[in-house]
From TrEMBL:
The chain crosses the membrane at residues 45-61. Gene3D superfamilies: 3.30.230.10. One of its GO terms (cellular component) is small ribosomal subunit. It comes from the Eukaryota. Belongs to the universal ribosomal protein uS9 family. GO terms for biological process: translation. PANTHER family: RIBOSOMAL PROTEIN S9, SMALL RIBOSOMAL SUBUNIT PROTEIN US9M. This is 30S ribosomal protein S9. It holds the Pfam family Ribosomal_S9. Keywords: Membrane, Ribonucleoprotein, Ribosomal protein, Signal, Transmembrane, Transmembrane helix. GO terms for molecular function: RNA binding; structural constituent of ribosome.
């Protein structure tokens, strides 16, 4: 029985060879030719093999058509127009505050902050992109979205396509703003949503988490309290590492960065109050061979 099946398959393959030989002939459709040959020859045991081959050829044709239809849009290099002084790209992370309207007439603004370096990398539809990519991206290599976001929209860090953060609260899509902070060896991730002033840390009420110590509680929510916004937002914080005091300082920095994401005009006030400054003060480590960080063993000559 096995020999009969092998002979039948061999005969079917031999009968189907003329169909496959037309695949390399220019100007002929291999799928239509295979169907015509099978219909004319009338070989019953070739049908399964022919169906599989036709499906494979159709899939290959669709893939080649998709590749040829995916045109590579023009990617230019970022530059600033010398005549107008405007760049050919939009970087949403270059947020600025115009203080000129608040200055008295005849007063010059003192330069401050880091030196501005213009972007000179690749630009696609006014959006800075990674070098070496062609858009739209190949769907066989990348997950959607295959196009960069709109000009002026932030991306990354789990943002949606419109540049905002969203979370589900009781089956409702709610927008939130997020920040990350550190203090000593503690880290914190803070999300703020529009609310009535609730403060949750690691699933507990902040007063309970900070052991009913008001100094740590006020230190953690100080940026919102200083701007009189405490009862307009709900704070959802997750902290880990270090002690309670270090976690309170990490939550304060993360909260200030989340507030900056919500309203960039709050940045000068929070920067002046040092809410956006990472506190680098740490416990000095103990030295090897010595009892403490600064304490030394007494020196004895003999």
């Amino acid at each position: 029985m096995r020999g009969i099946i092998c002979m039948a398959l061999f005969a079917g393959a031999a009968a189907f060879v003329p169909c496959l030989s037309t695949m390399s002939t220019p100007g002929l459709d291999p799928v239509a030719t295979a169907r015509r040959d099978i219909k004319s020859k009338g070989v019953p045991f070739v049908v399964p093999m022919a169906v599989a081959t036709i499906a494979a050829l159709s899939l290959r044709q669709r893939r080649s058509t998709a590749k040829t239809s995916r045109k590579a849009e023009e990617v230019v290099m970022g530059q600033i127009d010398p005549e107008t002084g405007k760049p050919n790209y939009v970087n949403p992370f270059e947020e600025r505050i115009d203080f000129e309207k608040d200055l008295p007439p005849g007063t010059q603004k003192d330069p401050s902050g880091k030196k501005f370096h213009p972007y000179t990398g690749p630009v696609y539809k006014k959006v800075p992109v990674v070098e070496g990519l062609q858009f739209p991206l190949d769907p066989n290599l990348y997950y959607p979205p295959l196009e960069p976001p709109e000009p002026g929209v932030k991306w990354g860090d789990g943002r949606a396509q419109d540049g905002n953060w969203y979370m589900d609260i009781e089956d409702e899509k709610v927008q939130y703003w997020q920040g990350v902070g550190k203090r000593k060896t503690a880290c914190a991730i803070v999300r703020i949503v529009k609310g009535n002033g609730q403060f949750i840390v690691n699933g507990k009420d902040a007063i309970q988490y900070f052991n009913n110590y008001p100094i740590w509680w006020l230190k953690a929510c100080e940026p919102l309290a200083a701007l009189s916004q405490k009862n307009k937002f709900d704070i959802i914080a997750k902290s880990f590492g270090g002690g309670v005091s270090g976690q309170a300082g990490a939550i304060r920095l993360a909260l200030a960065r989340a507030m900056q994401e919500y309203n960039f005009n709050w940045r000068p006030l929070m920067k002046k109050a040092r809410f956006l400054t990472r506190d680098w003060r740490m416990v000095e480590p103990k030295k090897t061979g010595q009892p403490k960080a600064r304490k030394k063993t007494p020196y004895h000559k003999r």
